[in-house]
Write a structure and sequence with these properties.
The protein is mainly α. Helix content is 87%, strand content 0%. The chain is elongated, with a radius of gyration of 16 Å. Bound molecules: protoporphyrin IX containing FE.
């Protein structure tokens, strides 16, 4: 059923699954396997984008009232606000990560990677607490 807690549970599982891919991609690049890093991150990018678009489809079109209960609970709303401070910037940075990686703009890619690592960790931790 399309209830708020169900949607959150599915999102948490999706975020945990793509995080495994991201960690594998970072291990691959640390071992010098750039090609594998690129392939794993292409998958990470595609699946993350699908999760974001799926969430938007649910909350904007299919069931716009599904997260109303969050707004009526101030501590839940605060937890969601913290999460958005991390998740929105990390979603914005993601295409730039893919672009700089594919184009071989290594220095920019590594600077963005440092930001992205912080933002994704924040997204993960604060997301699991909602
Ligand atoms: C978060 C930590 C990350 C680190 C430390 C990292 C680091 C690197 C490094 C060192 C390279 C090799 C550059 C070279 O010398 O050619 C690389 C390539 C690449 N990265 Fe990342 N990256 C990270 C995240 C990401 C993410 C999130 C994406 C995409 C969403 C991505 C996509 C790519 C792609 C497509 C390549 C090219 C692979 C190839 O040459 O076949 N990376 N990355």
């Amino acid at each position: 059923m399309l209830t708020g807690p169900n949607v959150l549970l599915i999102l948490k599982i999706a975020v945990a699954a793509v995080t495994v891919l991201l960690i594998a991609a970072v291990i691959a690049v640390a071992r010098g396997n750039y090609r594998l890093h690129g392939r794993l991150n292409l998958l990470f990018f595609t699946l993350t984008l699908m999760a974001v678009l799926g969430l938007e489809l649910v909350v904007r079109i299919l069931a716009p009232e599904v997260f109303d209960y969050i707004n009526s609970d101030s501590s839940l709303r605060q937890a969601l606000n913290w999460h958005l401070w991390f998740s929105v910037p990390s979603t914005l940075i993601l295409p730039a990560m893919l672009y700089t990686g594919l184009r071989g703009y290594v220095r920019v890619h590594l600077v963005l990677a440092a930001c992205f690592a912080i933002l994704w960790s924040g997204t993960f931790i604060t997301g699991m607490m909602i």
